Structure formats: structure tokens, C-alpha cells
Amino acid sequence: MLYNKFSQFLKDKYGSKVYKLPLNLPVTCPNRDGSLGWAGCIFCGEEGAGFENLSCEISVADQLEQNVRYIGKNYGSEKFIAYFQNYSNTYLPYELFVKNISEACREGIVAIYISTRPDCIADRYMEFLAGLKEEKGIDIVMELGLQTVNYHTLKLLNRGHTLAEFIDAAIRIRKYRLGICAHYITDLPMDNVDDVIEGAKIISALGVSQVKCHSLFILKNTELERMYSRGEIQPITIDEFIDRTIRFLEHLDPDIVVQRLIGRAPAERTVFCNWNTSWWKLQDMIEAKMVEQNTCQGRLYKAGNSLMNKIH
Ligand code: SF4
């Protein structure tokens, strides 16, 4: 096995194909509503992370109903993950949060994945989720945007949080025995390969259960696009991206599930996206290189205390 693929993990865990159904809530983000800032992260587009979402005006139950009908019919699946994808889905009043999440607990939903920022994790909300998991037997995974562990880069990205908030969130979420998925951009031009390796090591040390890697596409009408057009940033090469992704995987705990290796965005909304190469072709190139290098996820992973194993 080259790496711990999400599709296989889902098949093993739930015994059949499972699809993630995106859900869109009328929420915002503290980095956009003025609490931390108005501009947002330099790469974030107006629509946040979801390009294929239904309107947030539609209730959670109805969004699920429509998605289940469409995906179930076209892909023959009966098990689904309710995925609260856009913006910061814990950044809303507690009662509203409880209502939305509870609405997602319906037949066929085997897990709920909730995207949010590392600085939007409150104990009360996690306690509710832990209770729900127990009561309904539904898995819960918190998807946290980390992007990089280099706190200088986090500042340049205008994330509005540093590495410390991610560490705090991971410790807090684990206290409630919920899953964590870290989102990570492996090809940030401000980072180098050492940052990416350190990222894999920190994610592993914190007991994160899944990672979702992104490649840096440049959306129109973002600060990143303006920096790009002024020549202030230059995407790294495709070869460097492949190399960084492999180094990341090699240092990652082999038990961590890899949701994906490459980000995607509609070409018409970007000025740069994945070197004009489809995500599956890029994935093939990474996998072929791993075979050529005879390497795999976790090949260079060492648990923090691994030296101690040698002396007793
Ligand atoms: S935290 Fe997420 S939603 Fe908020 S500005 Fe950054 S990328 Fe956009």
C-alpha cells in the first residue's frame, strides 16, 4: 500500500462505498466578519470552500434529501457522510449548531464531518458532538484548516491564527474522542520541503486521524491573485510539488487516513490551477514516483519517543 487511502478506509469501516454529501449553512468566518479581520485568508474565494454546494437557504434536511436522492441513484450508494463544508461551521450560536447537526442524523448517514477553524473549537460544542456520537452511533470528524505549520507563513496567508491554536484544537477535540482531519497545503511557495516534513511530523504527534492535502490554486478576485499578478509569488514547479507530497507522506504516521493529495477548483474561477493537469493525472504521477522510489506513507515516520525503544 502506497498510502492509507480514504476510499479503502471507508470500505473497510462501513463495508461498502460511502459518499460525502456537502452541506451548506448560512455561516461566515471570524476572518471575514470583522472579528479577526475582513479580508479572509489570501487564497479564500467568495464562496469559501464549496463550489458544488446547494444554497444555504435550503434546510439541512432538504439538502441531504436532494443529495441522497441524486448520489444514491447515480452511484448506487446507501451510506453517506454529511459534510458541513463551507466556512466555519462551529462559528454560530450553540442552539443553532445543535439544530443543524441534529438534522443531519438520518437514515443512511454513517458519519458527520464538520469543517471549521482551529480557533473555533469550544468544549460545549465538542461535548454535544461526543454525546451525539454515543447516542446515535455516528462517527464525528472535525475538519480543521491548518495549511502549514510555519507560523510565519500562516501570518503571510492572513489566517488570523498561528500553530498554537491548531495544537490547542487538536488536544481539545481528542479529549472528546472525536476524529480530526487536518487540511494542509503542501505546495505553498513561502514554505520549503522542511516545513512540509515538519507539518507531517506535528500532525502525527498530535494524534490527528486524517489529512486532506490541497494544492495551491489561485482563485480570481483574491489577494493571492493580486500578489500573483504583481509577481510577488510564483507557484512551485510540478516536480517540486510531487516531491513535497511524497516527503510529506513518508513522514506521516501510516495509520493516518489520507482523504486526498490534490485540491480542485473549477478552471474558469482560477488563474492558476494544478499546472493545467487533472487531479487524477497528478495523483497517478505521485503514485508512479512513489513506486519508482520504492517508498510509502510512514517510511520515515518515527514516533516522538522512538529512541527510547532502543535502550530498554
Ligand atoms: S478560515 Fe476558511 S473560510 Fe475563513 S477566510 Fe480562511 S479559508 Fe476562508
Automatic annotation (TrEMBL):
Its cofactor is [4Fe-4S] cluster. Residues 13-261 form the Radical SAM core domain. Keywords: 4Fe-4S, Iron, Iron-sulfur, Metal-binding, S-adenosyl-L-methionine. Coiled coil: none annotated. GO terms for molecular function: 4 iron, 4 sulfur cluster binding; catalytic activity; metal ion binding. Transmembrane segments: none annotated. The keyword Iron applies. InterPro entries: ELP3, Elp3/MiaA/NifB-like_rSAM, Radical_SAM_C, rSAM, rSAM_horseshoe, rSAM_sf, YhcC-like. It holds the Pfam family Radical_SAM_C. SMART domains: Elp3. This is Radical SAM protein, TIGR01212 family. It comes from Ruminiclostridium cellobioparum subsp. termitidis CT1112.
